[in-house]
Amino acid sequence: MATPERKVQNPDSIPWDPNNDSFPLRSELPKAIPYHPDAPKDAAWVWGKDDYIGRLNLLTPLRVFNAAKTEIRTGETVRLDLPLHVPIAPCFGRTPATHRIMDLGGGVAFDDVLDNMNPQGGSQWDGFRHVPPPPLRALLGVMLITVYATDILPDPEQTQTQHPNENLKCSIHYWSSPTEPTPKGEEKRTGGISGRAVLLDYWTYAQSTPGKSYDPYTGHSISFADLLECAKFQGINIAPASQGGDIQIGDILLVRSGWVDRYNDLTDEQRATAAKRHVHVFEPKPSDIKPEGSQEWAGLAQDPLTLTWLHDSYFSAVAGDAPSFERWPSLETGPSGDGKGGWLLHEYVLALWGMPLGEMWDLEGVAEVCRRQKRWTFFLSSAPDIIFGGVSSHPNATAIF
């Protein structure tokens, strides 16, 4: 039987077909996107004019089916969300939710009530409304389909989302099929996020390698070279399959940096103190550092090599266990390398490429199972909250081995 011809995506044939077998490198991205004439460099929102799910398009039924068929072998399951009360003091000035039980009358029945619940206070998906691309920061633009603050923020007197009348561009509810028609009726939606996941357990690698130890509560950068060595330690090749590696189109990347492991070893007082440190977006000058110090977290380096690898691997989504997927605070020059101010990986991953980004995931249990089973891939299923107009969601994620 003849081998089927590989379907290669032409960069300029827009919209792209997610069923193709090969996609353009970052260096080959189209210089113009017809329905986004003002798109900045590195823009890859190429799945259609009214597309709001970005790289989730890569999770085609065939890829999800093949992932389930090859990755579900033992049936062992592991949750990937932290408990809702963790961390006890959320980072970046967010306030914690409180849980109370409401008596419905006479002790006959009870309800849970969660007050001040912010999905980004703990384990989270950052949605496409979370961070705009750099050229549109001042306008609060979101990805390449400009959304203004007046579209995102409800009227001050509005107590709940009035979804039939508001602008829902890039809303996180598109990641999970709603139970009712959307206002326009025809937008592409997806029934959650399911596919093959790849874990890079950098924390275990660093602890096992002389000279590599670090504190996850500092701004330690995990470079692309570090990830290559971690993958070698695990026995995998993190080059894309099209380049002879093990990364498949649509894979979900998970990086364990050790933040949760370190959190588990701290006292409540130490946890609260770390979270209350001053927030700097870019690496502060010594004169800018407050007495309480700055919030610093280990994460991926924001260098061109890391950026290119994240793009060219065609992950459908990425996530880590730290409060920030990238090293925090950002180096001032950022991955643009032009010395004109930093671009966060958030801005590339979310706004320019449409790739869901997860933070503060609980990767402790899944890392233990991966080590025990001597495998670093598994099936992952996530059911994002269906929040019309939503910016973020709990992951509600499970690994299945």
Automatic annotation (TrEMBL):
Which terms does the record give in the GO molecular function aspect? arylformamidase activity
Region Disordered: start-end pairs: 1-21
What InterPro entries does the record tag this protein with? Answer: KFase_sf
GO terms of biological process kind: L-tryptophan catabolic process to kynurenine
By its UniProt entry, which PANTHER family does this protein fall under? CYCLASE (PTHR34861:SF10), PTHR34861
Name recorded for this polypeptide: Cyclase
